[in-house]
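Sample intake sheet
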Amino acid sequence: MTKKTRKKYDEDFKKNAVKLSYASPKSVMEIAEDLGVPSNLLYRWRQRYTADGDKTRYATLEEELRDTQRELAEVKMERDMLKKAAAYFASLQK
């Protein structure tokens, strides 16, 4: 009977695997298979490295881009409203 040895992965590998799991269109199971790690281990890494300590605000760049575009649209709308208000009040001063 052979004893199974447990593989050890360094922190960089784990963090990169988690980033890849969020950024890739593949499923977590597919990514785990590609990396040669059990899928349940990748799920645990995701829980650990997206916990409060290492949590980034956005899981993917696409989410950050959507949020930034939404915020930009709001700021443009506010700017346009202020321009119109300034023009209106300037016309009253004449």
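Comment: The helical segments are 11-23, 28-35, 39-49, 61-93. Residues 61-93 form the longest helix (33 residues).
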